[in-house]
Specification:
- The protein has 2 domains: about 180 residues, NAD(P)-binding Rossmann-like Domain (Rossmann fold, 3-Layer(aba) Sandwich), CATH 3.40.50; about 120 residues, Orthogonal Bundle (N-(1-d-carboxylethyl)-l-norvaline Dehydrogenase, domain 2).
- About 50% of the residues lie in helices and about 15% in strands.
- The chain contains 12 helices and 12 strands.
- A hairpin with a 3-residue loop joins strand 3 and strand 4.
- Helix 6 packs antiparallel against helix 8.
- The radius of gyration is 19 Å and the shape is globular.
Length: about 325
């Protein structure tokens, strides 16, 4: 296939970086946003990316809401919304997207590609693991703190390998190095073992990643959670190897001077992504018959705090 009009749904921080890379080789790329004022800013100022990735691109096509996407005729869709919005977004996309259009989940979390496959069929479902960290400075303005290339993109079914390569080449051609891989699940788990564990600990204790790994009490909890989630990953066919944990923890101890995004979601009174993080680990563990008491406790505590912050307690 020749991707000429990809769409990015959710042009926040990570989505804006993706959209900027796509627009460099596919100028008709579509940005799907939720607010009219954001659309106006993108049309006026384009996308500006600074830091570890530097870009400034014009935005030709903007849709306010998924319903408007129908008139643009996208030939690929990248999902960059928060995972708590995923069920709604998939439902809205199903009403407007033609059959056969590849849909790529770029969100954090476990099993997002399975939800895409359920909505659009396994042949059209893809997953991307983003290896950059960034923060939104304003509408269409993002600063990238780090990029550890490449990103990884793969299909749910092996038959989608050619499409995955085309999409990866589009992004790489736009300066965002991305590699097409056969088994994207391994890369998902390599990232999510850390994310699923540290997000809950940081959110509940209001700690940075580095603090959570260096303070003795929180580190003991983290180590117990690592043992649990790695057991679940192995049972699902993803043995990450003996060196994985020490390397990943060492990296976060040096680089994790920031709080996890779950902290910011709770502080702002927004829903969290707990159901696709700790919630999915617990669900997999229950299905497999693997005890995960630390994960189950942390997940329920985040749910309780979320309910309180959202006014449900």
């Amino acid at each position: 296939m020749a991707v000429r009009r990809p769409a990015v749904v959710g042009v926040g921080a990570t989505g804006a970086v993706l959209a900027a890379a796509l627009a460099e080789t596919a100028p008709d790329a579509v940005c799907v946003v939720s607010r009219p004022e954001t659309a106006e800013a993108l049309r006026r100022d384009g996308i500006r990316v600074s830091g570890a990735v530097e870009k400034r691109v014009r935005v030709r096509n903007v849709a306010v809401g998924v319903a408007e996407l129908a008139r643009h005729g996208p030939d690929a869709v990248f999902l960059c919304t928060k995972t708590y919005s995923l069920p709604r977004v998939l439902s809205e996309l199903a009403a407007v997207l033609p059959a056969g259009v590849p849909v790529v989940s770029c969100q954090n979390g476990l099993g997002t590609e399975d939800d895409v496959a359920e909505a659009f069929g396994k042949a059209n479902a893809f997953r991307m693991v983003l290896n950059y960290g960034c923060a939104r400075q304003g509408p269409g303005e993002v600063r990238v703190a780090f990029f550890n290339p490449p990103n990884h993109l793969g299909p749910v079914l092996p038959e989608g390998a050619d499409v995955a390569r085309e999409l990866a080449e589009r992004l790489s051609g736009g300066g965002l190095a991305t590699e097409a891989v056969e088994d994207v699940g391994r890369f998902v788990w390599r990232k999510m073992v850390m994310k699923c564990t540290m997000a809950s600990i940081c959110a509940l204790a209001d700690l940075t990643l580095r603090e959570a790994l260096t303070l003795p009490a929180s580190r003991r909890v983290a180590d117990a959670c690592f043992r649990e989630v790695l057991a679940v990953a192995r049972a699902l066919g993803y043995d990450l190897g003996e060196e994985y944990l020490s390397q990943a923890v060492a990296y976060l101890e040096k680089a994790g001077v920031h709080k996890d995004s779950m902290c910011h979601d709770l502080e702002a009174g927004r829903p969290t992504e707990i159901e696709y993080l700790g919630g999915r680990v617990v669900a997999y563990a229950e299905r497999l018959g693997i005890p995960v008491p630390h994960y189950a406790t942390l997940t329920d505590m985040v749910r309780a705090l979320e309910a309180k912050r959202l006014g449900g307690a």
